Amino acid sequence: MPNTFELIASSTVGLLGAASIDFTSIPNSYTDLCLKISVRSNRAASAWDNSQLKINNSTVNMTNRFVRGNGSAAASGTLTAFYIGDIPASLSTSNTFANQEIYIPNYAGSNNKSGSVDSAGEDNNSTAYLYLTANLWSQTTAINQLTVFSGNLDNFVQYSTAYLYGVKNA
Amino acid sequence: MPAGSTYTPIATYTASGTTGTISFTSIPQTYTDLVLTTSAQSSSGQRQQYIELNADTTQKYSRTILSGTGSSAISARDSNQFQTYLDYYAVVEGTFPNIVTTNFMNYSNTTTFKTMITRANNASNGIDAIVHLYRSTSAISRIDIKLNAVNYSAVSTFTLYGIQAA
What we know:
The complex is a heterodimer of chains A (170) and B (166).
Chain A: E1 5-12, E2 20-23, E3 32-39, E4 48-55, E5 62-69, E6 74-79, E7 83-88, E8 98-105, E9 113-121, E10 129-137, E11 146-150, E12 161-167
Antiparallel strand pairs in A: 1-12, 2-11, 3-8, 3-12, 4-7, 4-11, 5-6, 5-10, 8-9, 9-10
Chain B: E1 7-14, E2 21-24, E3 33-40, E4 49-53, E5 61-68, E6 73-81, E7 84-85, E8 98-104, E9 114-122, E10 126-134, E11 143-147, E12 157-163
Antiparallel strand pairs in B: 1-12, 2-11, 3-8, 3-12, 4-7, 4-11, 5-6, 5-10, 8-9, 9-10
């Protein structure tokens, strides 16, 4: 039986850290994409950073709507970015990484591209963040590149990982 | 020895543009869980979509909802419904696709009521996380997905996957 949930590529950040995690030349032979991420930031003097996504090396034509819980309150908002979620930074509990999943159906088609995101960052402190997010990239171009980066332009630390899967509907 | 596939497409449909109902029938009972993924647009304006299980339209459905509108976070409940809606604010639009993923856990057992979890996403209107209960011990063998009052546009896709625990 053919493999219908298939690893396309993976990336693990090394000792020196990385400004981004980049998947290029994504084949157009799948139906949907699923990107699973585990990241922590080296942002100085802060407990939290955030991760965002570029599509085909672009951050334009993006809209976002989210609901967020931080352990004491729920909130909702909008952004003009493909916002993945808040991630632990240098002042967060050591060795804790955010857990994030992005699902993009019909990524190679000729329609605008919607993305569903679940993101969780827990650090056993008084504040942590759970995000549920709807994203829209208003472009009809097929997706061939995905880049995860820090919203504050800091680095991801060693042991951060990202796995890109292709999902086939037949 | 390579592992067998554990995330298997059972059936997939692209809407014809002439119907507001997509039906998955004769669902095999050989998987552990089901995952239904929809990327849907309507032929006209904002519409809600809902599911009926086993063609059952009696008042056996209930749900609890967590939503974000972009300005507020909301929780709500529906009880004793004739069907269960897959969205609250993350409705189907006519101009871009929304994404809805529904997990049906332990769908083939004949001992317990059936619990489902939905994530629905509409970047212009809202995000929903919904837990549904279908108060029937029957195995799920049919899922009908329906759009209120209008047809699905021909860019809409629907895929049902089976997940095996081993």
